[in-house]
Design goal:
Layout (H helix, E strand, L loop, with lengths): L2 E11 L2 E3 L3 E2 L1 H13 L4 E6 H6 L1 H10 L3 E8 L13 H8 L6 E4 L18 H5 L3 E3 L3 H9 L6 E2 L5 H10 L14 E5 L1 E2 L14 H5 L3 E2 L2 H13 L4 E6 L21 H14 L5 E4 L1 E2 L1 H6 L3 H11 L4 E8 L3 H6 L6 H15 L10 E9 L6 H17 L5 E6 L14 H5 L1 H23 L5 E11 L2 E5 L7 E5 L7 E9 L3 E6 L2 E2 L5 H5 L6 H10 L4 H7 L8 E2 L2
Parallel strand pairs: 1-4, 1-5, 3-9, 5-6, 6-7, 7-8, 9-12, 12-13, 14-15, 15-16, 16-17, 20-22, 23-24
Antiparallel strand pairs: 1-2, 10-11, 18-19, 18-21, 19-20, 21-22
Helix pairs in contact: 1-6, 1-7, 7-9, 9-10, 10-12, 12-14, 15-17
Length: 560
C-alpha cells in the first residue's frame, strides 16, 4: 500500500487563498489525484503549523512511514494573517532537506514567492534541487503522473477540468484532517486564466501568463465538489479561485478583454449549489473586474444574483492598482478611475443593505499596487485624491488593500524589478499612513458604526489580554474584544469603536460571571470603578442587578 503525505505550506495568490482559516484547492485536488491513480493509497494531510509545532515527530513519520511527500506552497500576494503565515522557501528547503522520502514540490511557489511586497522573486534552483520532482504545471497532475510511474525531475503536465471535477470530490476527505476542522472556509475554483491575456495582462500579474485565456468549470462540477465537502461537515465556502466571478460562463471571455457577463449561468450555478448544500452558512465570492461592471449592463443582473444567493458580508475585490492614467498605461492596466467610481455606485446601490449578521450583503474592496513600472511621485498624490473623492461621494467600501508589487518571474515587472519600490519608499510609507489614518477609519465607521451588532464572530487568538475574532467569509472584519475569551467559540459583539482596520467591541450580552472589567466600563455611564464594583458584588438576580446599574443597561448584561 502506497502511503502519501500532503504537506500544506499554505498558498496566497491573486486568484486563490489557502491560509487558515481558508483551505485552498491544491491539497484536495492532490489527494484526489493520488486516489484516482492508486485506490489503495493511504493519504495523510499535514499543515506546516503541525510540522512547526512538532517537527521531530512529523519528520520521523515522513521518513519512516511515507512513500511520497507532496509539498504545496507559495505566496504571490502577501498579506497580514491573524493566526499563522505561509512557509518561506527557506523554511520549505530546510524541512525538505531532512526528508529522505521522495518529494514533489508544487503550487504557486514554482513561479516565485514574495513573503512581503516590494521584494524580487526569492526562488532559486537550490530549492528545486532538494526535490525529486518539481511541478511547473499543475501539481495535482504531476502527482497523478508519479503515482502512475511517470517520473521526471521537471513536470510540466496540465490537468483538465474533467480531472479536477473528479479529483476534487475524491480528495474532499482531507478537510476532516485539517486542524481547524470544521471551522474552515473551503476555497472553490470556478475558472482560471484571464481575458487580459489577449494583450499580455497587467505588468505584475502571473495569472494570464501562467494560464492564458479563461477556462470555466461546469456548474455541475462545482456544485458536486461543494456537495461532497458539505456532506463531510463543511458549511463555509468562498468561490475565490478565479480572476473575475462576474464573467463566469461568458461566451466571449476568450475574445474580449471586457467580456459580456452571462447572468443565466451565474443563476444556474448558485441555484445548483444551494440545491446540493441547503444548509450552507457562508457562501461568498472574491475577485471582480470593475471595468466589466462599469461597461457591461448585464453586470447588474449578476450582482443582483450575488446579493440574492450569497450570504451577508460578501466582498467583490476590485483591482484598481492606481488611478493615475499614465502609470496605468505603462503597466497595461485596464481599469480606470471612472470605471471604479461607476462600479462602486452600482455595487453600493444593489448590495449595501445590512444582512442578519450585521454586515452589508455585498460591498466592493479596492486594491492598490505600489512600486509599478514608470510611476512618478505624482501617482501617490493622485491616488490619495481619488480616495478622498470616494469618501466625499459617500460610498461604502469594505477595505482598501495596499501592497508593494511582488516581482514574479515571467511578468513584465521583471524589467525593472523593485526599482520603484526602493525609489519611492518614503512615498509608499506616506501613502500607507494616510490611507490607514484618514481613509480606512471613515469607511469602517460607515459600515459598522458604534452600536452595530455583529453576529457569529469566531474567537481566534488572544494577545496582550485582548481577544481577536472574525466572522467567516471573504475579507472578514477583525474584531477586538478586551479580555481573554475562550478561543474557538462564536459570540455576538456590540461595536463600541473603530480603528483603521478593525473594530473594538464587547460581547453582546456581557456574561457577568466571566466578564473583564474593561468590557463593562465601555457601556454608557460606566467607568472602571463602577465596573469593578459590579463584578465584586456578583448580583444573583435582576433585582440585585438593578440596584447597581441603570435599567437601560440590562439588555447588555447577562447574569449567568
Amino acid at each position: 500500500m502506497m502511503r502519501c503525505v500532503i504537506l500544506d505550506c499554505y498558498t496566497d495568490e491573486p486568484a486563490g487563498l489557502g491560509v487558515p482559516p481558508y483551505l485552498g484547492t491544491y491539497p484536495r485536488y492532490v489527494a484526489g489525484a493520488i486516489l484516482d491513480g492508486n485506490q489503495e493509497a493511504k493519504v495523510t494531510y499535514v499543515t506546516i503549523d503541525q510540522v512547526r509545532d512538532n517537527t521531530k515527530r512529523q519528520l520521523e513519520y515522513m521518513n519512516k512511514e511515507a512513500d511520497l511527500v507532496v509539498f504545496i506552497g507559495g505566496s504571490h500576494t502577501p498579506g497580514r494573517y491573524l493566526r499563522t503565515r505561509p512557509a518561506t522557501p527557506r523554511e520549505i528547503s530546510k524541512i525538505a532537506s531532512r526528508i529522505e522520502t521522495p518529494k514533489i514540490l508544487g503550487g504557486p511557489i514554482v513561479a516565485g514567492h514574495s513573503q512581503v511586497g516590494g521584494v524580487e522573486n526569492s526562488i532559486t534552483e537550490d530549492l528545486f534541487d532538494v526535490f525529486e520532482v518539481v511541478s511547473f504545471g499543475d501539481v495535482e497532475r504531476a502527482v497523478y503522473d508519479y503515482v502512475n510511474g511517470k517520473e521526471s525531475k521537471r513536470n510540466y503536465s496540465r490537468r483538465t477540468y474533467e480531472e479536477v471535477d473528479r479529483w476534487a470530490v475524491l480528495g474532499s476527505f482531507v478537510v476532516k484532517e485539517h486542524p481547524c476542522y470544521p471551522f474552515i472556509v473551503c476555497e472553490i475554483e470556478t475558472s482560471r486564466g484571464c481575458p487580459r491575456a489577449l494583450s499580455g495582462g497587467c505588468s505584475f500579474c502571473i495569472e494570464p501568463r501562467r494560464y492564458g485565456l479563461p477556462e470555466f468549470r461546469s456548474e455541475i462540477g462545482i456544485a458536486k465538489e461543494i456537495a461532497s465537502l458539505y456532506q463531510r461537515g463543511c458549511k463555509y465556502f468562498r468561490l475565490g479561485r478565479q480572476s473575475d466571478i462576474i464573467i463566469y460562463g461568458s461566451e466571449d471571455a476568450r475574445k474580449k478583454e471586457v467580456p459580456t457577463p452571462n447572468p443565466e449561468m451565474i443563476e444556474r450555478l448558485f441555484l445548483r449549489i444551494w440545491r446540493e448544500a441547503p444548509g450552507i452558512e457562508v457562501l461568498h465570492v472574491d475577485n471582480a473586474n470593475p471595468a466589466v461592471i462599469a461597461r457591461r449592463p448585464e453586470s447588474r443582473k449578476v450582482i443582483e444574483a450575488l446579493v440574492r444567493y450569497c450570504t451577508p458580508g460578501n466582498v467583490l475585490a476590485f483591482g484598481l492598482e492606481t488611478s493615475d492614467p499614465e502609470v496605468a498605461e505603462r503597466n497595461n492596466l485596464l481599469t480606470t478611475g471612472e470605471d471604479i467610481l461607476k462600479a462602486l455606485r452600482i455595487v453600493n446601490e444593489i448590495g449595501q443593505r445590512k444582512g442578519w449578521n450585521g454586515m452589508p450583503m455585498l460591498l466592493p474592496g479596492i486594491n492598490f499596487v505600489l512600486g509599478l513600472k514608470g510611476e512618478t511621485p505624482e501617482r501617490y498624490f493622485r491616488d490619495l485624491e481619488f480616495l478622498k473623492k470616494i469618501i466625499k461621494e459617500g460610498y461604502l467600501v469594505r477595505r482598501i488593500n495596499v501592497r508593494e508589487v511582488a516581482v514574479l518571474k515571467g511578468t513584465a515587472m521583471q524589467e525593472v524589478g523593485n526599482l520603484f519600490v526602493k525609489k519611492h519608499s518614503n512615498l509608499i510609507n506616506y501613502f500607507k499612513k494616510k490611507v490607514r489614518e484618514e481613509i480606512d477609519p471613515v469607511l469602517l465607521r460607515r459600515i459598522t458604526p458604534k452600536g452595530t451588532i455583529l453576529r457569529e464572530v469566531f474567537t481566534e487568538v488572544v494577545r496582550n489580554n485582548w481577544t481577536f475574532g472574525r466572522q467567516f467569509g471573504s475579507y472578514p472584519l477583525t474584531v477586538k474584544v478586551p479580555g481573554r475569551l475562550e478561543v474557538g467559540k462564536f459570540i455576538d459583539v456590540l461595536v463600541m469603536g473603530n480603528g483603521s482596520r478593525s473594530v473594538i467591541g464587547i460581547p453582546y450580552p456581557i456574561r457577568l460571571s466571566e466578564a473583564d472589567p474593561r468590557q463593562i466600563e465601555m457601556l454608557p455611564g460606566m467607568n472602571r470603578r463602577k465596573a469593578v464594583k459590579l463584578l465584586s458584588k456578583r448580583p444573583r438576580n435582576e433585582e440585585e442587578l438593578m440596584r447597581l446599574v441603570d435599567r437601560k443597561l440590562l439588555p447588555f448584561l447577562e447574569l449567568s
